[in-house]
Sequence to fold (286 residues):
Amino acid sequence: MATNYYVDADKADDTGDGLTMGNAKKHISAVLELLSFPLTAETIIHLKKDTTASYEETSGYLVFSNVTRQGVIPLLVIQSENWNQTYYAADLDPITGTGALAPTAAKRCTLTAGILVCEGSVVEFRGLAVEPETSRAAFQVTGYSRARFIYCRADNAEVGFLANKHASAVLQNCCADTCDHGAAAVEKATMEVEGNNFFLESKVAGLTAYLDSVVTVNPWDEHPSDYCTLEIRTTAKALRRNYAAILVKLRSTVAVSGTGDEALHPGVAIVKIIKEDPTLQETYYG
Fold:
């Protein structure tokens, strides 16, 4: 059984016990102080949506530093209030957050501070949207840390989703809109792009692997028989400057692949690049 805590940035202070939204803590850090690391069971922190006040930040980031080192499976989960996996998994459009089974409960929690996971932390984020005011990246994983982002969205950032310096990131059904780089793995980092992901209005590159890094585009683990689609839309300005939809440099790799066992799992990955002229589309099948 998971342990649940609740945070509401509009609360006056941290005097609440954090065990219900009505008695929520004001700061995420106040909940982290209650926990014993390394975690041995799943702990979920629910963030109140549509708050007037912003969640706390350090130099433009919400920082998750050395919060757990137990294994590669995230035991600390940060998610939007009333997250319901069923609603998100059932045809939810990663771009708009709407779909056949996407009620208000599936609405993202919007933050103005970037997310930073560092110092060996292992964290999962569900249903968050970040439009950073000052941070370089909307979602960043660094320093031997690992993070999984599920139905998250980045807007107007230098980098939407960034893994760097030996870190590992998993993107499942995410969207980056109007970012220089939609997603990037840099300096011996790895990134798995699973399910349906959209990098829109990418000013430099939709997907980047740089300096001994590896990015794979795969079907979603939870639905291995389905197609997965990575759609990259580059701006006209970027195309004229000869920037790339997919940028691979300095001993790096981007692999687009199926599940590896077509008899058991017929899923296949598709990358669609939409150029300046909407009639010109390039689709690559793996």
Q: What stands out?
A: Residues 28-32 form the longest helix (5 residues). The first strand starts at residue 3 and ends at 7.
